[in-house]
């Protein structure tokens, strides 16, 4: 008897922040990062990292591998950040669907608790 497959539909939140001269795109849900000289490149590198994580999760049938959220400090940076509309992330490795992304930019001048 086969068991029904669960479909995981995962929307993402990403906060951008600078480290030195590079931008970091940090995914809250997966605690994965991409970096680069601008936000678009950082997001592209994050997209690649998420794709590898999703593929490995599917290949090894280890859904728990997906759900490793970022540190609370990163959530606070996202909450304090301003909305920015940069890029799009959509990845499907059935039964895992990563769709939609909310992006915010955090700067050191913004207060976090």
* Biggest β-sheet description: 6 strands, mixed
What amount of the residues lies in strands? 25-35%
Secondary structure tally: strands:
6
Query: What is the general shape?
Result: elongated
- Give the helix tally: 2
What string, H for helix and E for strand, traces the elements in order?
EEEHHEEE
Helical content band? 25-40%
Q: Mean of the pLDDT scores?
A: 85
Q: Report how far the terminal alpha carbons are from each other.
A: 51 Å
Evaluate the radius of gyration. 15 Å
**Uncertain segments:** none
The count of domains is: 1
Q: Which secondary-structure class do the elements indicate?
A: alpha+beta
Write the layout of secondary structure elements.
Elements: E1 8-19, E2 22-27, E3 32-36, H1 39-59, H2 72-80, E4 82-83, E5 90-93, E6 96-105
Parallel strand pairs: 1-6
Antiparallel strand pairs: 1-2, 2-3, 4-6, 5-6
């Amino acid at each position: 008897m086969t068991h029904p497959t669960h479909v995981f539909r995962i929307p993402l939140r990403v906060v951008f922040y600078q480290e030195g001269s590079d931008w970091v795109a940090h995914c809250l849900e997966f605690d994965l990062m991409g970096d680069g000289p601008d936000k678009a490149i950082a997001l592209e590198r994050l997209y690649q990292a998420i794709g590898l994580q999703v593929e490995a999760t599917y290949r090894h049938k280890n859904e728990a591998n997906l759900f490793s959220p970022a540190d609370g400090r990163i959530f606070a940076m996202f909450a304090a950040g301003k909305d920015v509309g940069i890029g799009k992330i959509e990845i499907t490795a059935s039964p895992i669907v990563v769709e939609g992304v909310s992006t915010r930019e955090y700067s050191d001048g913004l207060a976090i608790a």
